[in-house]
# Entry
Amino acid sequence: MAVKDQPQPPRFRQISNVLLLLSGLFLLANIFLPNLFGPQIPQVPYSLFVHQVQEQDVVRASVGQNEIRYQLKGEGDKPGQVLSTTPIFDLELPKLLQEKGVEFAATPPSKNGWIGSVLSWVVPLLIFVAIFQFFMNRQGGGPQGALSIGKSKAKVYVEGESAKITFADVAGVEEAKTELVEVVEFLKTPDRFTAIGARIPKGVLLVGPPGTGKTLLAKAVAGEAGVPFFSISGSEFVELFVGVGSARVRDLFEQAKKQAPCIIFIDELDAIGKARSTNAAFGGNDEREQTLNQLLTEMDGFAVGNTTVIVLAATNRPESLDAALLRPGRFDRQVLVDRPDLSGREAILNIHSQKVKLGPDIDLKAVATRTPGFSGADLANLVNEAALLAARNRRLAVAQEDFFEAFERVVAGLEKKSRVLNEKEKKIVAYHEVGHAMVGALMTGGGEVAKISIVPRGMAALGYTLQLPTEDRFLLDESELRGQIATLLGGRSAEEVVFGSITTGASNDLQRATDLAERMVTTYGMSKVLGPLAYDRAQQSFLGDGMGNARRAVSAQTAEAIDQEVKEIVETAHQQALDILKANRELLETITQKLLETEVVEGEALHKLLAEVRPLDKAVA
Ligand code: ADP
Ligand code: MG
Ligand code: ZN
# Structure
């Protein structure tokens, strides 16, 4: 599909742009040209001119209002010098010139005087108009007046030109696709549905985390149905001046109705569709509200007649949307576009690696296994990184190796071999990482420990322990979560066991361990003391964490009990990690020495070493 700008109010804008350019050139020319190309005549003070006349050194003069040019007597055959001066108001001058025998005349009117004087009127006018127009363009809105400003910036993807996107380009979101196939049917054969009196849905909301293919799906719907696709982003509506957003909405729907059946796609719907009440606290946002109201009005209005315009919208914050948007007849259909599962990831990798040359050893399934939580966009990026690495390594095709290196890059930032740790630091980091690995090896739920490295990566991590899930996990039980917390504390515990002190390197681990413990208590209801109550306000959104996690208003005692519970969980896990490491003190030493030698321990070698970790007798995990 090709992207085209919607036809703008055409001629006036073009003309005014040309005028703006011309008048700019004219101004520049006026400023610079006389100095650049004009005759280089020396300027002298008027008093010197008068003196020279009185001394009878001057032969002739050309007297203008703003300038007098005159020529001095030459010596012998040589003509005299030409000088110029700026006159003062002097009625006696002609008399003086005549007395001293100077040939003189008034300056003839300049040859382009007529054009000049017209231009001097017209040019400022043009500049004014052009500037006015320029600002109106910027504003892009306002009333639909004679100048027809305020056209929407919607892009139209016209189907049929260049590569058209279809459902085959989207993978891993099968449920969403099934629902959207129906939308395609509505667009292709609306009569079939209206004939039996069914109401064709107007709005479909695509909901999901960033990069999961919402925009892609919307384009695919247009591609499958073979209809025009108007696309605009919510933030563009709210851009500049008051009144513009709603004018844009009106205009967008007007254009769409003319081209029905078609799709209007509003990306980032939350930018205009935020719940109105939440904003009232800040004194409200009139502009956004007007835009929202206009959108609602248009959606209510356009079903009249037999135009099929379906509004697709995308958001990753459905919970923040105004309830009015979700009412029947508006965005009453919601399609979840979630992160892909294992087979979905493999399918997405397949799609994107069609564009690159793959070597014979490629196992995309293995790549997919390593990448739970990756969105479609992340996977597309991964394929590209792998291809870049292959090219840098001067390979002819992408090898599996490239994928794994790309994966580590994407996950942990770029490898920075140049950043050297001193020996002491290196040792601490090594013990720390081995601590994670050994505790992790005994714990379920965190996945298999696949790699320990003390090669610094990116900005923050000095070393890292890579745990790979062996399958996609959606549900974790309490002991698995406790195991994860112990694993997170394993690094710090190793430092304690070996050095008796801890460094600042463990702070991120602590943060994550505490967060996890708190969620166990407040979100998952796993505390025996507090019972199965959710103490955080919003149940965890599908985004995984982040916003809406403020605690419900609780009594002081409950708050204290929560803190107590969190502390208990973390401390128990800490003790467990310490016990494991103390019981395996020699192995801790062995693995660390090996790691210090090779900087990276992975694969079979690591597997063998970690298999030797002895579980605690009183095995808690
Ligand atoms: P969103 O709009 O949900 O943030 P996009 O549709 O803009 O995500 O996705 C960005 C890019 O990532 C797409 O152009 C595509 O290359 C890739 N991508 C994302 N999801 C998928 C998917 N499910 N299948 C194939 N490619 C995908
Ligand atoms: Mg998008
Ligand atoms: Zn750590």
The CA atoms of residues 357 and 397 lie 5 Å apart. The chain has a mean pLDDT of 77.
